[in-house]
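Continued from yesterday's entry.
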Amino acid sequence: MQLNSRILLLVFTLSFLLLTSQDLLASGYDQPEDSTSIVTSIEKNHAEEHLPSAFMVIPFIILLAMIATGPLFYHHFWEKNYPIIAIILGLITVIYYLIFLNETHSLLHTAAEYLSFIALLSSLFVASGGILIRIEKKSTPWLNAGILLFGAVIANIIGTTGASMLLIRPFIKINQDRIKPYHIIFFIFLVSNVGGALTPIGDPPLFLGFLRGVEFFWVIKHVWYIWLPTILLIAAVFVLIDSRNVNKDEPSEKFSGKIEFKGMKNVFYLLIIVISVFIDPAVISWVPSLSPLPIGIREIIMFSMVYIAFKTADKNILKANEFDFEPIKEVAYLFIGIFATMIPALQLISHEANVYRESLTPGIFYWATGVLSSFLDNAPTYLNFLSAALGKEGMNVSLPIEVAKFAQDFPIYLSSISVAAVFFGAMTYIGNGPNFMVKSISERSGIKMPSFFGYMIKYSIPVLIPIYILVWLVFYF
């Protein structure tokens, strides 16, 4: 029965992506002139030969299927060969664009996005790995919920990746005598995803919106009253489940109640990384662009922090944190395949959003952005639907003044897209970068995490979807 459910979900995912693009085999569009986004093209006349074939979604589906089934059915083969598989499937898409479409813009744009993505994740991963937090308190549902809510708040200051890497190890240690997979999964829900919905620093989609012209404090102003009940509802479900987890063999040792914090210099490194997020020509006019290089000053600073933070880290802290590079290595390889293979899917979705934009309501934007952010990278998905939403009003996503005006005049549309892109990243392991890193760290700590579909069937669908439906009914219906 469990296998049939996995197969049905896989078929549903494949069917959804193919059906949304089935009428595109005979239509197409030119690549956008703006090198910062593929979505600006919806304001142009599109050339038929530049639209990717719907069949080019297949490499992405294969990669998704192998990520889901590999650790379960052919674990040793997958563990040894996943870097090769991800790269080969990505190369299929790259070769198709180079030879059959003779088009390099999307490839260069995706390469730049990937390097920004991995620079941010790797720098936060290494910098937080040099910080040791010990909490000498007895594990209780309310203490655990407090840690999760604290992580959800600071995710808006140091990003979901920074908050996840800072807290996942102490969270595992404080629950070491009663740890279950659901502890980690609710950590992914709250700290790695939903928590970071209030500021552009919190999650990449919101930062892209900031770069496009959305005011920095717009999100917190228009989303806090959605964010707060959502995290409280998820935390309440966690407390209910955790209260039933009683360890009869739990040691009767006394706890001092002390909280220990080591590695203050790495807090300074985290501050540099967060500040560097804004060192971009789109934010600060005097910052030089390194075009045509696929990286900028920001990425150079972040990659430098990877080296400096690791070389200057206290070795005893790294040992206590059981720090190694395997989690970020897994993310780096898998997401290079995901970023490459998802290019055709994103372009087809962008076209569809443009075609049907006049009939798209805030509720449709919410569900379309959310469902696709669960399986595709939520940052470009956010941009695709933001572009379609602006197109409804005759505006251009490439003009910051028009994006700012849209945010002011039509907040319900931007809110639905922003909330969905961040919230639904928690639906799968690949919905957001920190998810895989948290999963990998947990597995290396001996926690048996559910499979890709097990995560969805047992946890994200029954826990999150009812809450997300409630959000839709109250705010976007």
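--- second protein ---
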Amino acid sequence: MWDWVRRRAWGLSGKLIASYVLVTLGVVVLTETLVLGYQAPRLENDTRLQDQVGTTAKVYLRRLRELYPGTVPAGTLLGDRDQPARPGHAQPTGDGLTLVIPGIDGPIRDDQAVTAAVLIASNGAIIASSAPSRYPPGRRAGDGVPAAAAAAIARGQSGDVGIDGSGSTGYGRVSWALLGPVPGPAGSVAHLYVQAPSRSTGFVSPIRAWQELRRMSGTGPLLWASYLLLVMIVPVGVLFGLLASGRLVRRVRRLERVTVAVADGDYTVALPSSGHDEIGRLEANFTTMIRQLGCALAAERQRATSDAATAERARIAREIHDAISQHLFGLRMIAAGMRRASPDDPQLRAIEHISEDALRDLQVLLLELRPTNPYGIGLAPALREICTAYRDRLGVTVDADLADLIVPAPIEHALMRITQEAFTNAVRHGKARRLAVSTARCDGNIELTVRDTGIGFDPVAPHTGSGLAHIRDRVAELGGTVTIDSAPGRGATLAVRVPAP
């Protein structure tokens, strides 16, 4: 069990799972860093600004009640006329707890929100404001304040405790507070609405943002949620890694098992392709490599066997030539001398003829045993070499019409052996003194024809020798055909036709 766990932990599956966990952790940490860097300062600024707007609204409400104990005249310019207007910016006072509300009696750009105080009647109409060009008296306040503030004004929700929030207006995002009641004209009840534009911040240090977030929320749900998210990544990453890497690891392990089998010498294993990706192509290429390697080893074994057989044939030929051939030659010379001494002795004449025939048959046998190289100089030169050997050593006339053909080595070797077998049969059994051999390519086939002027034979009659059987077997292995045309007294013709690319 421990070995299995160790292999999983340190194997490909463990490394993939670890990489998935690390990548997921990296993505989450990067995401949290970006969120903290961009959103936490905004949250901090919005929270601080909201506190400043609420405190400013309470302070300004007391100030209005002190300045106007009876009623606030309609159209009064609220705010501080001595403070410069800075649309789009919320300017804190010296203590940092409240905001400066400038009295703006001039025009204001439409693309920026301003810090403003607006006195709104219970029916939603503006009584007075610190920016008359933006919030003119008599206009409905709901058109220029956030939707939540407009709804609160419509429901008459305010009071000394007040309500606050943040939202968007047609001039930008603002933080706001709504308090009341404030004495309005002719004894009407009014609400005090105070707003300030939200501060825009860029990216700040995630460590500083995290510290500010902790200061703001303590050990609240936001921090615990981030901690829990980081902890949950590990099992989620492990599960995702197992699901994502399971099939990949199984395919790699199957490839490993086949590799071990091939290393042990088993070239019959099959590795089916399980896809069109890189591993699928690797499986297909590996299967092709196994087949090619098996064929190469089989060819090498066949070549080694052929080389061993050739060496053995050469050894036998040497033994026959050095021993039996010399004895037969000596016997023929003795018989020839005795016949010259007694020319009328029929037995001596018979001994001389038998020794000559035996020596001739032995020379034919030596030519048959003569080694040939199946991977040698080509089909036409090899056949010419065979023709030269029969012409020089046996005195047989050989006519050769050989085309220069390039054929695979197995076909070349088979055609050389067939020619050698046909020549041997013609000389030994057919007593032929003239041979003819030709080769040609026709319709994707190689045609080999051997003719002789011997005594001929009946092709359908049973034969004791195995030469023709060997020729038919070789041609059948190549997927070709053999045609024999012969009759007693008129020689023989052997035609072989084998397919060749």
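The radius of gyration is 56 Å. The first helix runs from residue 2 to 10. Will compare against the first tomorrow.
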